[in-house]
Design a protein that fits this description.
Length: about 325
């Protein structure tokens, strides 16, 4: 019998959000629906009515607050990632490891039992509130290596994420990021501004987060029940790591090392990598990895690559469930 491949959940972060992401599952997938409603209910505890406002902006055709704004992108990405993870686990799947990108790491931490959902929801909302005082800015994906872009960086704009061998994300405040963007395009680099109104993973966010370690320190943590890889250290998080409030507080500021972390995941053995969040950005990166291209590991996406009507979400989830069953990671779906 062939050896079972590990099941690894990939949880996307800032930049993967879009209007009505995964909304086609709401009301039709009971586990997903209950998990989303639980987050919205917890959000209401901290700020009366905030959960209902989050739900309305998520499901509405014309959100009152732009979904790229930090007060919407962060909590809704966290909620969707977590709810999709709960859905996968409800099929009988037992994730061996989790790798979250940016805010996706907090969703992964809840799924791995590090934080309770209530505590993590409070931390996410607190982080989003603090970051409203950060300067406006954003992130820029560039088809280049860090060495290629280094001559264009001016101190304010930094490398915010290393997603692949030639998949570098720059981050910084405006107008500095705009100047770098135009300079790169003038030299014929392929660039794309990511959906974000804040300069995530750049030092520009640090002043807004000053002193926030106290809120994190007040939250209890447990050792991960599954291997929880860090996108910041590119290694599994241990009991002391998850108990360090500075680690969680610096997440929005520190660069994301997704490609290095993915190398670490796949160096531990063959795996089925399941993107458990909106879009297929992490799946596309993972499909370029040598272990996947050689057929030793595989990639499954829960949701469609692009936004579409509700039935697209449902069909994509059904196909993902069939795929996980074909890999022997869950039982066959009911007919």
């Amino acid at each position: 019998m062939a050896k079972r491949r590990a099941l690894v959940l990939l949880l996307p972060g800032q930049g993967s959000q879009h209007p009505r992401m995964a909304a086609g599952l709401y009301g039709t997938e009971p586990v997903f629906t209950a998990a989303m409603d639980e987050v919205f209910g917890l959000a209401d505890i901290g700020t009366a009515g905030e959960g209902e406002r989050l739900r309305a902006d998520w499901l509405g055709e014309r959100p009152a607050v732009d979904l790229d704004h930090v007060t919407r992108s962060q909590p809704l990405l966290f909620a969707v990632d977590h709810a999709l993870g709960r859905l996968v686990k409800s099929w009988g799947a037992r994730p061996d490891a989790l790798l979250g990108h940016s805010i996706g790491e907090l969703a992964g931490a809840v799924l791995a039992g590090v934080f309770t959902l209530a505590d993590a929801t409070r931390l996410v909302l607190d982080r989003a509130r603090l970051l409203t005082d950060a300067p406006p800015g954003g992130m820029l994906a560039v088809a280049a290596t860090p060495e290629d872009v280094a001559p264009f960086l001016d101190g304010e704009v930094v490398v915010g994420a290393l997603n692949g061998p030639r998949q570098t994300v720059l981050a910084g405040p405006d107008p500095a990021l705009g100047h770098v963007h135009r300079a790169l395009e003038a030299e014929e680099f392929t660039c794309r501004r990511l959906p974000s109104l804040s300069p995530f993973h750049s030092p520009a966010l640090a002043p807004a987060l000053a002193g926030s370690e106290e809120a994190v320190a007040a939250v209890a943590t447990s050792a991960p029940s599954a291997v929880l890889y860090s996108c910041y250290t590119a290694r599994p998080l241990g009991r002391e790591d998850v108990a360090d409030p500075v680690y969680w507080t610096r997440q929005p500021v520190a660069p994301v090392l997704f490609r290095t972390a993915l190398d670490a995941v796949l160096s531990d053995g063959d795996a089925v990598l399941v993107e458990t969040g909106p879009g297929q950005g992490l799946a596309q990166l993972a499909r370029r990895h040598p272990a996947v291209r050689a057929g030793r590991s595989a990639v499954v996406s829960l949701l469609p690559a692009r936004p579409g009507p509700p039935e697209y979400d449902r069909a994509s989830v059904a196909a993902a469930r069939e795929s996980l069953a074909s890999h022997g990671l869950i039982g066959a779906p009911p007919r």
